[in-house]
Amino acid sequence: MNLRGTLPTLILEALEQEPKHGYRIAQRIKERSRGVLDFKEGTLYPALHKLENDGLVESYEETENGRQRRYYRISRVGRAALAKDRDEWRTVSRAVTLILERG
Amino acid sequence: MTMSELLERWLGRATKGLSSDSRLQVWAEIRAHYESACEDALAAGASEADLDRAAVASLGDAAAANREYRKVLLTSAEAALLRETRCGVWSGSRRWLWLLPTLILIAAVRFFATGDAYFGWTMLTGAAGFTLLFSAFKLPVFTPNRGRIFRALRWLWLAAILALTMKGSWLMLITSAWPLFWVEWKLSSLRRKLPVSRWPKQLYL
């Protein structure tokens, strides 16, 4: 399914509970959507950089299994943006459901 | 785990035109991603023969990734511009540069003294602008909002000096000012790409 425009919100959701590196973020999105939201993982990192540039996530280096990985965590501004996106999505989703499931 | 030829080719295309720092960053993150994907696939019982192809295929189109990376990471041209701006001549470290506004100010006084107010004002505006530019590094302008105010003042000065020297010829104004607009446009792209915490001082000015 095409994720255009929603990937940043899904990334923020994936980071809401705990910091993760890029691969785990991609896995989390696929698992939580039960495989419906499948995307090309090469586009994940540009989206992460954009979120970092906008101050919605912060990154830091950490070692995992002897390998240096870049972890991302959601910032305070990012949490506020996620809450706003959630509200908007609920409103839009309710409206579309009303239209498509009428009758 | 060694990097496969397929992955190397993907990275080459995805990082085309990016600065060396950006390229290194992308290579490191995609390589770590690839290794995790291979480990998970191996643990799930995938054959070694399919690992590489599947891991690289999951990254998607390298050209599309390159387009996305160019929007958020510095290209080699932008990194070069940043380097040039970094060693800008008005860094304040070269005291002899202050000769320029001083000489212009002396000229302004002379023009006013001889009754030529037009050239007097032109020179005075020039001296004020150069003083603003050369003292920029010592001014408290290194926050995003103050930087915006400084840049607005600098553009006002530039517009005033060009209007005075070109005597309202818009064609001359645009012709002589377009390189400045181009540089400013490139710098504004850098400001969007880099988080404020990583802005060098030059990006505020």
State the order of secondary-structure elements of chain B, H for helix, E for strand.
HHHHHHHHH
Q: Helical content of chain A, roughly? A: 40-55%
Return the average pLDDT of chain B rounded to an integer. 83
Major sheet of chain B: none
Rg over C-alpha atoms of chain A, rounded to the nearest angstrom: 15 Å
> In percent terms, what proportion of residues of chain A is strand?
15-25%
Q: Give the distance, in angstroms, between the N- and C-terminal Cα atoms of chain B.
A: 46 Å
Structure in a nutshell:
With about 100 residues, chain A is of the alpha+beta class. Chain A has helices at about 5-15, 20-30, 45-55, 75-100; strands spanning about 20, 55-65, 65-75. The mean pLDDT of chain A is about 90.
3D structure, described in words:
The complex is a heterodimer of chains A (about 100) and B (about 200). In chain A, about 50% of the residues lie in helices and about 15% in strands. Chain A contains 4 helices and 3 strands; from the N terminus they run H-E-H-H-E-E-H. The radius of gyration of chain A is 15 Å and the shape is globular. In chain A, about 30% of the residues are buried. Chain B is built from 9 helices and no strands. The mean pLDDT of chain B is about 85.
What is the fold's blueprint, element by element?
The complex is a heterodimer of chains A (103) and B (205).
Chain A: H1 7-14, E1 20-21, H2 22-32, H3 44-53, E2 57-64, E3 67-74, H4 76-100
Antiparallel strand pairs in A: 1-3, 2-3
Chain B: H1 5-14, H2 20-43, H3 48-57, H4 62-72, H5 76-86, H6 99-113, H7 117-134, H8 144-166, H9 170-193
